[in-house]
Amino acid sequence: MMTMNPHPIALCSSRVAGALAAALALGACAGSRGLAQPDVPPQLKPPSDQIAFLEARAEGVQIYECMPRQAQAGAFQWVLRAPDARLTSSGGSALGLHYAGPIWEASDGSRVLGEVQARDPGPDAQALPWLLLDAKATFGKGVLAPTRSIQRVATHGGVVPSEPCGQANLRQFVRVPYSATYFFYKQRWRRRRCAPSASSGNRSTSAARSVR
Fold first, then answer.
1. Where are the beta strands (DSSP E) in the chain?
2. Residue 206 lies inside a defined structural domain of this protein
3. Among the four residues 50, 77, 84, 204, which has the most C-beta atoms within 10 Å?
4. Is 178 in contact with 153 (CB distance < 8 Å)?
């Protein structure tokens, strides 16, 4: 029997903090637009007053336990207990962890606890379903503090183990590899003007001169 460790993967705080800052900087001047949102069924779309502000790829496992089936004597089933995954940016830099709760934790200590609101089977029958989750609670003042909704998309693997579940392996844990992409959403805010680049300023000056 395997014993689960709620924090099996150590973080390298300074490096991860830099990666988080870089990921957020990508949308710093996007204002109310936010990141590009994935193409999902209507039930998986967040409220219209929210925008995506962080994209994270998860690589890890889904942990299942063999348990007796309730109200069915002599029957058994695999029960999903927790995810255990690393979170990285699209460029592969470490961003944080994903574990039981479900909880997503950034290197700065900020965390968000999710609660499933809607699901869709997704395009791959041999993969976990796609999800929309509400942020049931957030902790800390870091990068994940403003989270209001979370999407799970682009899933691969992670489904119920193919191994038999019965009396012989009751309470056994199995770790099934999976990957997915998570989008984090926050409240939309008023668009911020970004300082024009030197080249755009030169173009504007040239245009003004030509008008005169």
1. 50-68, 76-88, 94-99, 103-106, 111-120, 130-139, 149-157, 173-187
2. no
3. 84
4. no
Residue 2 lies inside a defined structural domain of this protein: no
| Cβ atoms 81, 100 nearer than 8 A | yes
Residue 132's identity, in one-letter code, is L
Amino acid identity of residue 204, one-letter, is: S
Angle at 53 between CA 51 and CA 56, to 5 degrees: 125
Say if 101 falls within a structural domain.
yes
114 touches 100 (CB < 8 A):
no
Residue 5, domain member (yes or no):
no
Q: Say how far apart CA 207 and CA 187 lie, in whole Å.
A: 38
The average pLDDT across 9-18 equals: 44
Q: Give dist(CA 182, CA 188) in Å, integer.
A: 18
Residue in 153, 9, 27, 163 with CA at minimum distance from that of residue 82: 9
Task: Give me the number of domains the chain comprises.
Answer: 1
Percent of the chain at pLDDT exceeding 70: 74
Domain limits at 135? 13-188
Please tell me the total number of residues recorded for the chain in this structure.
Answer: 212
Q: Coil, strand or helix: which one is 127?
A: coil
